[in-house]
Amino acid sequence: MTEKSLAPHVIAKEIAPLGEGAMSLDDYKQLYAQSIADPSSFWSAEAQKRLDWFTPFQQGLAGDFHAGDVTWFAGGKLNVCYNAVDRHVLAGKGDHVAMVFEGDEPTDVRKITYLELQRKVSQIANALKMSGVRKGDVVTVYLPMIPELAMTMLACARIGALHSVVFAGFSAEALAQRISAAASKFLITADQGRRGGKSIPLKDIANAAREKLDCEELLEQVLVFERFYDPESELPYEQMPKDVRMDELVAEQRPYCPPEIMDSEDGLFLLYTSGSTGKPKGLMHTSGGYALYAAFTTQNTFDLRDGDLFACVADCGWITGHTYVVYGPLLNGSTTFLFESTPVYPDPGRYWDMVQRHKITQFYTAPTAIRLLMRYGDEYPTKYDTSTVRVLGSVGEPINPEAFRWYFEVVGKNKCTVVDTYWQTETGGHVVTNFPGITPMKPGSCTLPSYGIATAVLDPLAGTPVTEPDEKGHYEGVLAISKPWPGMARTCINAHQRYLKTYLHVYKGYYFTGDSVILDQDGYHWIIGRVDDVLNVSGHRIGTAEVESALVAHGAVAQAAVVGQPHEIKGQSIAAFVMLVEGQSESEALVNELKNLVRKDIGGFASPDMILVTPSLPMTRSGKIMRRILRKIVCHEVDSLGDTSTLADPSIVDVLIEKVASFN
Ligand code: 6R9
């Protein structure tokens, strides 16, 4: 963090809209203190207020971080789909629009009411049941950002199956890995996706995935939606055994499916995410706790009110899409927006054009998109009427103050609150964020903890809270959370020890985020970035280990080391150093092959921007690659390389500096 970003540029809260009966900062502080003094009572009251229970729960929180056996509202029975859909219909809101979908082409708009949603989700749920899906099964969902994706997630929740959504930008290899790791017997996909006027051949990729690992043995049925379904037309994709034409099957179903009665602690979904080591982890979120946390944070962070049109433009393939496209807005009975395209198609005014046409009231995106759009100047956001927006949100990585100011001043015309929401796949929803009209903003800081979240800044070595401020009055360390909250993931599927080791046993008594943080004199949180080997490219989490293992799979590569490099738009880009096996030589063709390999193994978004072939890597005598040194070299911080004396061959450092300099 630079000195500049720490400058306490506080945007006066008077500029930010204050809701009716809005709380003051002191009210927040009081309620926050109450929420962390007794989280169990705080969340129990919220769970009674915000969710409908078939059987009430007797206890809020049970278990703790030490044992790794946290539960919320266990014994209470509910159904999350019923809560997100049916109860709004029963309350007389059946004709209220639940979803507004805007496809790749701006003219492709669909509006779906709560009643229509209940019927369609029921039909999909019945189709799943007919295909053999049972309570507790894992259904892998590989779909583009179309309403059927959200509906399929809700249909799974309705029948008690766990959805495992795989982002449609992932490759066949990555899809296969996730089907296999979860022993998933069902795959739901589509013939194609559309983005920026181009077709993405999802079914072909799914077909390729089925040929890998044990997927074909595992899969009982593959249900295929058609992006432009026409019952009269020929199959628009290459068929394989076990394929089912999903739109046809769905149309045959009864439009009501009774919701399964689930325990609060029954799994709602799995979502695979990258960690610092090994293969992606399948984090499991539960029904009651996750649903409550999604509903609560959506309403509080975004000041959600009746009549709002809430637009989170993330893809459902990521946690942001789960919590803030599907579950959060629908659990609140609001109208959610689903967006299939990109911020620059057909031109860089797309977002603001949508805001104007649909009268969007909350708009939520990632800093990488804001930085990209900033480059096209003020002309686009200025051209459109964005006055319906009250809250602008940012998520995925720290937002640099320049991008924050542009978002606030040019997009929000100095009238909206910008909420900088810090959270993770593991946390289920926002854990540190400002609240509209309540928390004064500081561009670049995600500000103060959300209710019930007891943040702690720990000394990374001692594992105890940092108690001594530095000369500026700041506390610096790793970010941890000391008390359980309902939205936290409960386990990694089939790998509870890995869950404990990664999150709960690193620092005893704390949940460890993997991020480092500075707490300023006002208690504001400034996220510095990951302390582990996890990269954040355009807001996408990628483990260095995943990219390295894709690279070494090439016959010519002996060793690979991957680090993040600062990138103006993506936040970070990937820099890879590869050492070739004896007798192989460097060529442009090889570099292209390696890029393609990563594309094939993980997905296009993980492809390195820079691949350098080097004679060797900076290794310790015990053979450990010192990534710290590579990081400094790609960041051009060669004056602060630190101790290089433990390197087996210190002369390699100069060779690498030279290589990086000549690449740029
Ligand atoms: C929601 C999501 C989580 C990691 C997290 C951190 C980074 C997310 C941030 C932020 C600073 C913010 N991150 N939001 N850093 N300010 N507002 O992105 O989940 O994909 O699991 O990534 O993203 O490093 O640890 P996920």
UniProtKB/TrEMBL annotation:
Gene Ontology MF annotations: acetate-CoA ligase activity; AMP binding; ATP binding
A biological process term (GO) from this entry: acetyl-CoA biosynthetic process from acetate
E.C. number(s) listed in UniProt: 6.2.1.1
Domain of life: Eukaryota
Domain AMP-dependent synthetase/ligase: 90-484
Keywords, sorted A to Z: ATP-binding, Ligase, Nucleotide-binding
SUPFAM superfamilies according to UniProt: Acetyl-CoA synthetase-like
Name assigned to this protein: Acetyl-coenzyme A synthetase
Provenance organism: Fistulifera solaris
Lineage of origin: Eukaryota, Sar, Stramenopiles, Ochrophyta, Bacillariophyta
